[in-house]
């Protein structure tokens, strides 16, 4: 089985379980230039060819005006892919610079701005869903960060409706192992366009939990799959949250 087939199988299984991709969906995929969003767009487009029903996919790249970042290779890749796409040229860089506090990271402001642009375009284009490129490692890192730093047992939903009810946000790759996406990037030679603001560096808490999981995984190779399985086998009666319905 090819790598593409292998990952698509995982996505199709997740999609079936959580109703992620449904007939007549019009799905916006924002492509940042990183491996995850390239992978998501490529894989959804491959999945589309194999589905027994119709869906539409529209790619969007937000060119954020960051100095030293040239999105040309990405735009050329989009053109060659044959996937319908739009480029939104918005200078979020200047807004981030103006609002960045000392010691603060650009990602929180930057991603909020970008989300606003993506939602506005998605609405204009009549999309009912917006797809995000989070994968298994993102989900588990979020789970650990919430556990360690926020005192919450919470990972990421595979699908949710935005607060204003405009879209469903979907995470088709939530069960896809990150190493598969790294291999796909290399196999498909996605022209990566790195972020110049933060150089794609994870924030230190996320990096810490990822390193911790990597270290445990050295002696427990199936760790992340076991953890992912745990997210599907929750027993609220053995936790202490009085607001959660208990199994009889
Ligand atoms: S990685 Fe770069 S582009 Fe992405 S949110 Fe952070 S600052 Fe913005």
Q: Care to give the gist of this entry?
A:
The protein has helices spanning 3-18, 35-50, 72-81, 92-99, 106-124, 136-150, 178-188, 204-219, 223-230; strands at 26-30, 56-63, 85-89, 129-131, 159-161, 168-170.
Structure description:
With 248 residues, the chain is an alpha/beta fold. The chain has one domain (3-200): HUPs (Rossmann fold, 3-Layer(aba) Sandwich). Helix content is 48%, strand content 11%. It has 9 helices and 6 strands. The protein has helices spanning 3-18, 35-50, 72-81, 92-99, 106-124, 136-150, 178-188, 204-219, 223-230; strands at residues 26-30, 56-63, 85-89, 129-131, 159-161, 168-170. It has a 6-stranded mixed β-sheet with strand order 3-2-1-4-6-5, sandwiched between helices. Helix 2 (35-50) crosses helix 7 and helix 4 (92-99) runs antiparallel to helix 5. The chain is globular, with a radius of gyration of 19 Å. The termini are far apart. The mean pLDDT is 94. Residues 106-107, 110-111, 195, 197-198, 200 line the site of iron/sulfur cluster. Iron/sulfur cluster is lined by residues 106-107, 110-111, 195, 197-198, 200.
């Amino acid at each position: 089985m090819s790598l593409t087939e292998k990952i698509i199988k995982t996505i199709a299984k997740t999609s079936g379980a959580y109703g992620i991709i449904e007939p007549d969906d019009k799905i916006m995929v924002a492509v940042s230039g990183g491996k995850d969003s390239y992978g998501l767009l490529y894989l959804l487009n491959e999945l589309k060819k194999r589905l027994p029903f119709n869906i539409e996919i529209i790619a969007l790249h937000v060119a954020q005006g960051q100095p030293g970042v040239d999105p040309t290779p990405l735009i050329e890749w989009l053109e060659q892919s044959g996937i319908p796409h739009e480029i939104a040229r918005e200078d979020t860089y200047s807004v981030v610079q103006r609002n960045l506090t000392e010691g603060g990271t650009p990602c929180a402001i930057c991603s909020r701005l970008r989300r606003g642009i993506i939602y506005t375009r998605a609405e204009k284009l009549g999309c009912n869903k917006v797809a995000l490129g989070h994968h298994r490692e993102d989900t588990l890192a979020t789970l650990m960060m919430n556990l360690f730093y926020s005192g919450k047992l919470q990972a990421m939903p595979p699908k949710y409706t935005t607060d204003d009810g405009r879209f469903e946000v979907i995470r088709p790759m939530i069960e896809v192992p990150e190493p598969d996406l790294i291999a796909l990037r290399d196999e498909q030679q996605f022209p990566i366009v790195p972020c110049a603001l933060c150089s794609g560096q994870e924030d230190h808490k996320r990096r810490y939990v990822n390193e911790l999981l990597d270290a445990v995984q050295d002696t427990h190779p199936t760790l992340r799959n076991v953890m992912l399985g745990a997210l599907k086998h929750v027993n609220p009666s053995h936790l202490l949250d009085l607001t959660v319905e208990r199994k009889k």
